[in-house]
């Protein structure tokens, strides 16, 4: 068994509205191993974003415990958070008039990367995402696919073992989607643990080792795609989209 990079135990997150308490995440536990890609799938309002925000320290859970490479996220949030690259992607997030290298150096400094490590980290991140040859070009001249790779480089600039990739292929053309998928596979082979969110079932089918079906703030199933197909009682050659549709109804909130 490989090393556990992240362990979330009994995560609950409530939202209070006047005198009513809404249980967005009820009691979720999961872990993430080295070299593994996991994904949470479920209907709108299932609690996926709330859960991922809790793990990446954008929201404090109501209760539960999160260990990131042995560091307690709730007790030492800054230290734990630095072990994780959170990649939101999209057209924004960079200084258009600065080069890719300058942008990465800037974000590296924001993440407290030491000056003597910064240059090497930036070069390694650019190499990994295959942008080293255009590193001196302004970010504003980059295509959507290149920008997405630059976002991933930004997530890598302080050398985190864990990456959270939010919709990494959204809005990209077929070729760029293919490149991003190849990059995710490379990161996984390098030993990164990756939490992938995507509405594109083909991304999940291609990349994810372990799927967590989430509905009504709870996990209904976890396992690989083959096990999910058994759980959904569909043939093994059925598409993930059809498999998901078989179980979608039972994931709807009843509260
Ligand atoms: N700040 C908030 N205050 C009150 N309720 C909230 C807040 N954030 C989320 N919720 C509620 O918690 C539930 C879970 O929302 P969440 O965004 O985590 O779901 P999701 O699975 O990510 O959905 P989607 O696929 O639409 O992004 C929803 O019913 C939502 O309305």
TrEMBL record:
Pfam family, one: ABC_tran
Residue ranges of every copy of the ABC transporter domain listed in the record: 6-241
SMART domains tied to this protein: AAA (SM00382)
InterPro entries named among the record's database cross-references: AAA+_ATPase, ABC_transporter-like_ATP-bd, ABC_transporter_ATP-binding, P-loop_NTPase
Residue spans crossing the bilayer: none
A single GO molecular function term of this UniProt record: ATP binding
Keywords carried by this UniProt record: ATP-binding, Nucleotide-binding, Transport
Keyword Nucleotide-binding: yes
SUPFAM superfamilies: P-loop containing nucleoside triphosphate hydrolases
Sequence similarity: Belongs to the ABC transporter superfamily.
Protein name: ABC transporter ATP-binding protein
């Amino acid at each position: 068994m490989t090393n556990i990079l992240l362990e979330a135990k009994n995560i609950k997150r409530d939202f209070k509205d006047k005198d009513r308490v809404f249980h967005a995440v009820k009691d979720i536990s999961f872990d993430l191993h080295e070299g593994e890609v996991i994904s949470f799938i479920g209907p709108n309002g299932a609690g996926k974003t709330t859960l991922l925000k809790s793990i990446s320290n954008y929201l404090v859970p109501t209760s539960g415990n999160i260990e990131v490479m042995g560091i307690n996220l709730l007790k030492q949030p800054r230290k734990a958070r630095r072990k994780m690259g959170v990649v939101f992607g999209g057209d924004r997030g960079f200084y258009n008039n600065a080069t890719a290298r300058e942008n990465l150096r800037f974000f590296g400094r924001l993440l407290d990367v030491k000056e003597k490590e910064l240059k090497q980290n930036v070069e390694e991140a650019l190499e990994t995402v295959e942008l080293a040859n255009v590193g001196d070009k302004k970010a504003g001249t980059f295509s959507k696919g290149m920008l997405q790779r630059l976002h991933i480089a930004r997530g890598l600039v302080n050398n985190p073992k864990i990456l959270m990739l939010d919709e990494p292929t959204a809005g990209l053309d077929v070729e760029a989607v293919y490149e991003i998928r190849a990059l995710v596979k490379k990161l996984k082979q390098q030993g990164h643990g990756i939490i992938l969110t995507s509405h594109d079932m083909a991304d999940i089918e291609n990349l994810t080792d372990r799927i967590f079906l989430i509905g009504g703030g709870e996990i209904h199933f976890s396992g690989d795609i083959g096990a999910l197909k058994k759980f959904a009682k569909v043939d093994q050659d059925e598409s993930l989209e059809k498999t998901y549709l078989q179980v979608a109804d039972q994931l709807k909130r009843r509260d």
